[in-house]
């Protein structure tokens, strides 16, 4: 059975435990990179990651973009939204549909 995880600062991700997600309170780039690799190898189909945490490991995330699993989804952090998650969604929709239908 596939699992879902969330990675980011404690304030942003703590509430996700109540939804049944595996919560990883991590903000150090090296540890996030290793964590993503470990989760990908252990049946995690979806990894939610806060935008600030994702910015620290963009190269790692890009390596998984062409893989079927895991799907890495950027979410806003408690301190706000950088817009990177929405840009990634626009890019994915444009790639799948052939045009940006979200604008």
Automatic annotation (TrEMBL):
Keywords: Ion transport, Transport. Signal peptide: none annotated. GO terms for molecular function: proton-transporting ATPase activity, rotational mechanism. Belongs to the V-ATPase F subunit family. It comes from Ruminococcus flavefaciens. SUPFAM superfamilies: AtpF-like. Pfam families: ATP-synt_F (PF01990). This is V/A-type H+-transporting ATPase subunit F.
């Amino acid at each position: 059975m596939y699992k879902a995880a969330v990675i980011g600062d404690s304030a942003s991700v703590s509430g996700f435990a109540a939804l049944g997600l595996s919560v990883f309170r991590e903000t150090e780039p090296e540890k996030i990179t290793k964590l993503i690799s470990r989760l990908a190898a252990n049946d995690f189909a979806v990894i939610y990651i806060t935008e600030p945490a994702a910015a620290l490991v963009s190269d790692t995330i890009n390596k998984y973009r062409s893989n079927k699993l895991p799907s890495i989804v950027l979410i806003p952090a408690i301190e706000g939204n950088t817009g990177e998650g929405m840009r990634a969604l626009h890019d994915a929709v444009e790639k799948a549909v052939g045009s940006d239908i979200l604008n």
